[in-house]
Amino acid sequence: MKPIPVKGYILQNEEKGGDHSHRVYITTWDGRPVVHTHPFSGVTSYDDGHDHKYAGVTEPAPSGVPHVHRYFSITSIDQGHTHVIQGITGPAIPVPGGHIHHFEGVTTIAGKRPHSHDYKGVTGKES
């Protein structure tokens, strides 16, 4: 039987009292990637007389195990400025044909009259 090439990484989890465990995350199996990303997009809350649109793709995360994704995007330019949105999604939520993640937060502060916007949504299915 021919060996199957596998790549990945191990995370060590230190517990109180010196105990520890390891989690193995496989990133490729037989040369095929086993990580995925999610598209996300939305519109911020309406503050200071306007809102902003945003869109992006999450950072990759392992498939088939409990996980979250980091995300980052810069909003559309409205009233002469942009905001940054960034954070970590919630855990995977199974849906028919895959899974999604919730995300929410507050933008960075910007604008002639400094302000921020709230945002929240769900990612698209994994790709």
What does this structure look like?
- With 127 residues, the protein is mostly beta strands.
- The chain has a domain at 35-122.
- Helix content is 0%, strand content 48%.
- The chain contains no helices and 13 strands.
- The strands form 6 sheets. Strands 1-2-3 form a 3-stranded antiparallel sheet, with no helix packed on it. A two-stranded antiparallel ribbon has the order 4-7. The protein has a two-stranded antiparallel ribbon with strand order 5-6.
- The chain is elongated, with a radius of gyration of 19 Å.
- The model has no long low-confidence stretch (mean pLDDT 89).
Give the tags:
single chain, about 130 residues, mainly beta, three-stranded antiparallel sheet, two-stranded antiparallel sheet, about 0% helix, YmaF, YmaF family protein
What's the topology here?
Blueprint: E1 6-14, E2 20-29, E3 32-33, E4 35-36, E5 39-43, E6 53-57, E7 61-62, E8 70-74, E9 84-88, E10 93-95, E11 98-100, E12 102-106, E13 118-122
Antiparallel strand pairs: 1-2, 2-3, 4-7, 5-6, 8-9, 10-11, 12-13
Helical content band: under 10%
- The helix-and-strand class reads mainly beta
Helix tally equals 0
Helix-strand topology string: EEEEEEEEEEEEE
Radius of gyration, Cα only, in angstroms?
A: 19 Å
The major beta sheet can be summarized as: 3 strands, antiparallel
Shape: elongated
Overall mean pLDDT: 89
Strand content: over 45%
List how many beta strands DSSP finds: 13
Low-confidence stretches: none
Q: Please list the strands of the largest sheet in the order they lie side by side.
A: 1-2-3
Distance N to C terminus? 31 Å
Protein name: YmaF family protein
Organism: Paenibacillus stellifer
Pfam families: YmaF
InterPro entries: YmaF
